[in-house]
């Protein structure tokens, strides 16, 4: 992978474990010459990650809608900053610019981005590995919910397995490097879909 899109929050809760995970992810990416593609913010976890990548000599590419630039939350010290019209264009361009996707702890926007690109992968619209960096158990309940969806036969196990998960950024990127996209059709053929 030459570039990884990282979804993360515009807020930071002050958690030192999360901050260390962000710094370690930045180190791994820079050491492997992997560019950061992200939401273009200077605030929250987004700002922490971009600053860490830049401080270590890496490349940080931001994609942000104009309305967020107008709110003065855009990071103006990036390697590249793409300003787009809306959130949909933001996600599409971030996906187009990357070879893999990692989701860090975040809020509703972070989860929405994660599930959209996971859905795109499931539908065969891209072949990027999609990883969750499960810092300090942050995503334990989300992962359990995905398992419940499989148990309830609303999600195929093969598509559940598209989510690559680790608590360690080095292991996560190694797993993502070895990923081969093999989603199955969303629909259960032996079920009544009406």
For the largest sheet, list the strands in their spatial order.
4-3-2-1-5-6-7
Strand content: 15-25%
What is the helix content? 40-55%
Low-confidence stretches: none
- Overall pLDDT, averaged? 94
For the biggest sheet, the summary is: 7 strands, parallel
Q: What structural class do the secondary elements suggest? A: alpha/beta
Task: Tell me briefly what this model is.
The protein is an alpha/beta fold and 194 residues long. The chain is built from eight helices and seven strands.
Task: Characterise this structure.
The chain is an alpha/beta fold and 194 residues long. It has helices at 16-31, 44-55, 66-70, 87-96, 108-122, 140-151, 157-160, 169-177, and strands spanning 3-7, 35-38, 60-65, 80-84, 100-103, 130-133, 163-166. Helix 2 links the parallel strand 2 (35-38) and strand 3. The protein is globular and about 55 Å long.
């Amino acid at each position: 992978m030459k570039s990884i899109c990282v979804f993360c929050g515009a807020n930071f809760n002050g958690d030192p474990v999360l901050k260390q995970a962000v710094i370690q992810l930045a180190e791994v990416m820079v050491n492997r010459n992997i560019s950061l593609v992200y939401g273009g913010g200077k605030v929250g976890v987004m700002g922490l990650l971009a600053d860490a990548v830049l401080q270590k000599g890496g490349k940080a590419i931001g994609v942000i809608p104009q309305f967020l630039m107008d709110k003065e939350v855009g990071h103006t010290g990036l390697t590249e900053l793409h300003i787009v019209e809306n959130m949909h264009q933001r996600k599409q361009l971030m996906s187009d610019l990357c070879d893999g996707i990692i989701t860090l702890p975040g809020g509703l926007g972070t989860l929405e981005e994660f599930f959209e690109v996971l859905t795109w992968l499931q539908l065969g619209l891209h072949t990027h590995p999609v990883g969750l960096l499960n810092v300090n158990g942050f995503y334990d309940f989300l992962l359990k919910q995905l398992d419940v969806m499989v148990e309830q036969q609303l999600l195929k196990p093969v598509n559940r397995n598209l989510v690559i998960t680790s608590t360690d950024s080095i292991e996560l990127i190694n797993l993502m490097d070895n990923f081969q996209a093999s989603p199955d059709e969303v629909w259960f053929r032996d079920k009544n879909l009406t």
